[in-house]
Amino acid sequence: MYQETKQIAYKKGYKYQTQEIAIFQMNSLVGITIDTKYLQVVPEGYLIIREGYAWDGASGAIDTDSIMRGALFHDACYQLMRAGLLADYQKTFIDNKFHQYCIEDGMFTIRAMYVLQAVEAFGHDSTLPETIKEVLHAPLRLQNE
Questions:
Q1: Predicted TM-score (pTM) above 0.70
Q2: Nearest Cα to Cα of residue 51 among 22, 84, 80
Q3: Which of 22, 24, 53, 85 is an S-S bond match for 47, by CB 3.0 to 4.6 Å?
Q4: In 3D, which of 69, 55, 53, 42 has the Cα closest to residue 19?
């Protein structure tokens, strides 16, 4: 028998949600295995982002078609770093791969360089465990029945 939910738990800060699996090759991850609800790294060196993964697009930049694939990859990798599942030395590789995806997807070179410089300069804090999004509840207090 089911019981109606009286309180929901959620996280703020997400704008987009994948509607199918996305796969990214990451040679730097060969031999590593990670498996979370939405993110998986397989020993062959692939990051698999499952359907339903939520991310916020390109923080501090306009979400255009040429940035979305890279932003998805970048946000997923940074999330794994925040969780302590990817080492922080992977950041440079991840930032450069983000830049590569932007170029491949048609971004002007000058904008892609700006995006890369921004994540190099300001992205480190987003890889730290203390920036994990807080779980919120609504309503805040449950009413007595």
A1: yes
A2: 22
A3: 24
A4: 53
**Pair 56, 15: CB distance under 8 Å:** yes
Q: From CA 83, how far away is CA 97, in angstroms rounded?
A: 20
Domain parsing of the chain, residue ranges: 14-133
CB contact burial 111-123 (16+ within 10 A = b; e otherwise):
bbeebbeebeeeb
Integer Rg of the chain from CA: 17
C-alpha distances in Å from residue 24, one per residue of 6, 121, 129, 135: 39, 24, 23, 28
User: Is residue 42 within 8 Å of 24, Cβ to Cβ?
Assistant: no
Identify the helix (H) or strand (E) that includes residue 138: strand 136-138
65-82 and 91-104 helices cross at what angle (nearest 10)? 170
